[in-house]
TrEMBL record:
<keyword id="KW-0805">Transcription regulation</keyword>
<dbReference type="GO" id="GO:0003700">
    <property type="term" value="F:DNA-binding transcription factor activity"/>
</dbReference>
<dbReference type="InterPro" id="IPR051011">
    <property type="entry name" value="Metal_resp_trans_reg"/>
</dbReference>
<keyword id="KW-0804">Transcription</keyword>
<protein>
    <submittedName>
        <fullName>Helix-turn-helix domain-containing protein</fullName>
    </submittedName>
</protein>
<keyword id="KW-0238">DNA-binding</keyword>
<dbReference type="InterPro" id="IPR036388">
    <property type="entry name" value="WH-like_DNA-bd_sf"/>
</dbReference>
<feature type="domain" description="HTH arsR-type">
    <location>
        <begin position="13"/>
        <end position="86"/>
    </location>
</feature>
<dbReference type="InterPro" id="IPR011991">
    <property type="entry name" value="ArsR-like_HTH"/>
</dbReference>
<dbReference type="InterPro" id="IPR001845">
    <property type="entry name" value="HTH_ArsR_DNA-bd_dom"/>
</dbReference>
<dbReference type="InterPro" id="IPR036390">
    <property type="entry name" value="WH_DNA-bd_sf"/>
</dbReference>
<dbReference type="Pfam" id="PF12840">
    <property type="entry name" value="HTH_20"/>
</dbReference>
<dbReference type="GO" id="GO:0003677">
    <property type="term" value="F:DNA binding"/>
</dbReference>
Length: 108
């Protein structure tokens, strides 16, 4: 995800996803340690798997993480997540460009 190409809706989704401390910790853990599966990541972050799933879903919807299901050697399905490459530059001009593409405009 490049900020130059973010629509208003994409910018709002990314900022919303990043506005939670748990989700910031998830991004930081994936950036530092590389891809990881849900159970291990939940243990490392000391949060429950259901709560982690909610946060990962929000991050994935915003395009900030990606996932891939894989089978372990013992046949277990493991959902691996990794941080997606992204850069968000917030400037008045970037916000103005993004606002012009919003699909929901409460002022109209």
């Amino acid at each position: 995800m490049k900020s130059k190409h973010l629509t208003g809706d994409q910018l709002l989704a990314a900022l919303s996803a990043l506005s939670n401390p748990h989700r910031l910790r998830v991004i930081a853990a994936l950036a530092a340690g590389g891809r990881n599966y849900v159970s291990q990541l939940a243990r490392e972050l000391n949060i429950s798997r259901p709560l982690l799933h909610l946060h990962l879903q929000k991050l994935q919807e915003a395009g900030l993480v990606s996932s891939q299901m894989e089978l372990s050697d013992d046949g277990k399905a493991l959902n691996y997540f990794e941080a997606a490459p992204f850069a968000i530059t917030l400037t008045p001009a970037a916000v103005s460009e993004a606002v012009a593409t919003l699909t929901h405009n409460p002022d109209k």
